[in-house]
Amino acid sequence: MSSGSRTTGGIPTGIHPDLKIPTPEVVFTKLHAGGKFGTGGYKVSGGLHGVGASVVNALSEWLEVTIHREGKVHQQTYARGIPTSKLKVLGTASGNGTIVRWKADPQIFPKTQYQLETIETRLRELSYLNPGLMIRLKDEREPEPADTRDDLEAELDTAETKKAYDETFHFPGGLAEYVQFLNAEQDVLHPAVMFKGESQGVEVEVAFQYNDGYGELVTSFCNCIRTGEGGTHETGFKAAHTRIVNEYARRMGLWKKKDNLTGNDLREGLMAVVHVRMQNVEFEGQTKTRLGNPEARSAVDDLISRYLSAWLDEHPAHAKSIVEKAATALEAREAAQKAKKAVQTGKSSKTRTSLDGKLTRCSSKKAELNELFIVEGDSAGGSAKQGRDREHQAILPLKGKPLNTEKANLAKVLSNKEILSMVQSIGAGIGADFDLEEANYARVIVLADADDDGAHIRCLLLTFFHRFMKPLLHQGRVFIAQPPLYRVERTVKGKAQAVYCWSDEELQSHLSKMRDKRGAVIQRFKGLGEMNPEQLWETTMNPETRTLLKVTVEDAAAAEKQVHVLMGGKAEPRKAWISAHVHFGDDNEGAALRLEGMNSEGDEA
User: Fold this and answer.
1) Is 125 a residue whose pLDDT tops 90?
2) DSSP string covering 451-498, please?
3) Which of 99, 273, 366, 466 is the most buried (most CB within 10 A)?
């Protein structure tokens, strides 16, 4: 399977003055050869070291570059980074541009199943960031034979390639269209707003729009590179936004209390995108997840100071709704703080949750070695308590289904006893006050039944972590336990032998390998409560034998949008997602429900 890309402009085809070889060969075979290292190549760059093209070439079984420039079509080929032909002229060209085709080297990448959804998300993102750019994504892959599939995810990927995919991304509205896209499933308070300008040599673009929800998302970029951990540009936006709205609220008499509204209150329901273009970028780390340039902060602060105050003056109704929403958020936060204080001091019987008798603590005080199992139901909780490693594993059973926190503010969340017990057990606070360093456990493991109710509970818990304990997810501290579905037992030479299977396919595979099936007893676990402590420890809790799924967040904006779709108050977007991603069919057990796009990372512990 090969991949390709096409750009406008065209790589220069002349001989490099120093290396005396064609410029395309320099680009694709020499490290630190990017245009950023000279003068006038291009104004800004997301790359740091000029190694991208040459690394792709080195990791490809073959690579072919075709250049349309100055009326001619040039082409050169490579194999594992080594030129296999000279740069030659194929004919005449009417325009300029570069086409690069390559195939990942199977000696390095045993599996090269490209994720269409991942590529689509990134190209859509680039189209929003560059309003004049048009990107076409076409999937020409042939579906692989069914008997070559080795897991459900690959099967679903193949099913996706059966659909003809050919999409063009072009968004003239830029970041304003981006925030509208992110807010598509929300009820918004005003049209999207975008500011654009330049300060201190830094080009700044900011777009924002408030919705009626309780979440906050500020997504930032530098030179089209997503800065997932923020940085100085994001800090400048938040500081200026908080200052300007407070100044407006006091000037217009909308806020008269002694203390200002906090940034957390003012950003409740805010969807914003910040993009800066600049030279001499200082990313923190090669992963480029955090921007360190101090001039980016002052440039963004200057832009917001110039334009936000004027926008508030020109749109008093929208400005009032923003201030009122922040005031409501402050009231909810203060009520939540009173509830937390009452619980801590034992003065409130309504919300007080005593962890004694509910949380079964572990004996170790070393948080970096400890695990908290959040278990569905008292019955499974009892088995987990008896089967656990008492030194490092704590057990917290939950009664019933947790609150859907996507539809609740902080005060309502803390009034829920099951949620409150989790907050107290983890011990790191909640919401804006959450401090990962204070967590009592290195891992939080969700242990629920392998049925529809268990899946719903997992979704509700992940929504809570995403909304109110986001650092847990971003640092890879949340895991999903994988209990088995079947136990196959038979007697061999007078001794009972048991094998566990985690899927119907695994069960059938095991049975097909048994020479003698007589006397084999197959037990299907309908719930965790049917497993005795020894079985639960052996299959699901023992670090030496268990399998955990690590929950990761690769794209905060995409995650935010997905949570809105699946857990928000609007039914139509959820119905549309289910129609596109859920497949119903028949298997040996009857109706089978399969979900696409659940991006958890397998982690064998």
Assistant:
1) yes
2) SHHHHHHHHHHHHHHHHH-HHHHHTT-EEEE---SEEEEEEETTEEEE
3) 273
Active site residue 452: no
Which one of the listed residues 185, 449, 538, 596 is annotated catalytic? 449
Q: What percent of the chain has pLDDT over 70?
A: 84
pLDDT tens sequence across 245-258: 999 999 999 999 99
Beta bridge partners of 165: 139
Q: How many CB atoms lie within 10 A of CB 170?
A: 12
> Residue 182: enclosing H or E segment and its boundaries?
helix 175-182
What is the CA angle 40-45-47, rounded to 5? 125
CA distances to 98, 332, 412 from 406, in Å: 46, 15, 11
| pTM score, whole prediction | 0.75
**Cα(189)–Cα(328) distance, integer angstroms:** 15
Q: Domains of the chain (ranges plus CATH)?
A: 2-169 (3.30.565.10), 175-335 (3.30.230.10), 354-483+548-565+599-603 (3.40.50.670)
Q: What is the pLDDT of residues 363-375, one digit of tens each?
A: 999 999 999 999 9
CA–CA separation, 93 vs 96, rounded Å?
A: 8
Catalytic residue among 376, 406, 418, 596: 376
Q: What DSSP element (H or E) covers 413?
A: helix 410-414
Residue 281: CB atoms within 10 A of its CB come to 21
Catalytic residue among 451, 504, 555, 603: 451
Query: Does 506 qualify as catalytic in the annotation?
Result: no
Largest CA distance in the chain: 88
Cα-Cα-Cα-Cα torsion 124, 125, 130, 136, nearest 10 degrees, comes to: -20
DSSP-derived 3-state class of residue 423:
helix
Does residue 376 carry a catalytic annotation?
yes
Query: Angle 556-567/452-468 helices, nearest 10 degrees?
Result: 130
For the chain, the average pLDDT equals: 84
Using alpha carbons only, give the angle 104, 108, 113 rounded to the nearest 5 degrees: 50
pLDDT surpasses 50 at 271: yes
Do 278 and 201 contact (CB within 8 A), yes or no? Answer: yes
- Full DSSP string of 158-173: HHHHTS-EEEEE--TT
State the Cα–Cα distance between residues 116 and 105, nearest whole angstrom: 19
- Tell me the mean pLDDT in the region 494-507: 87
Q: State which amino acid sits at residue 467.
A: R
Q: Is 185 tagged catalytic?
A: no
**Catalytic entry in 70, 378, 453, 554:** 453
Cα(564)–Cα(183) distance, integer angstroms: 9
**Rounded (5°) CA angle 6-9-13:** 100
Question: How does 55-76 read in b/e, with b if 16+ C-beta sit within 10 Å?
Answer: ebbbbbbebbbbbbbeeebbbb
∠ Cα 582 472 264 (to 5°): 100
Cα angle, residue 219 at apex, residues 218 and 224 outer, rounded to 5°: 155
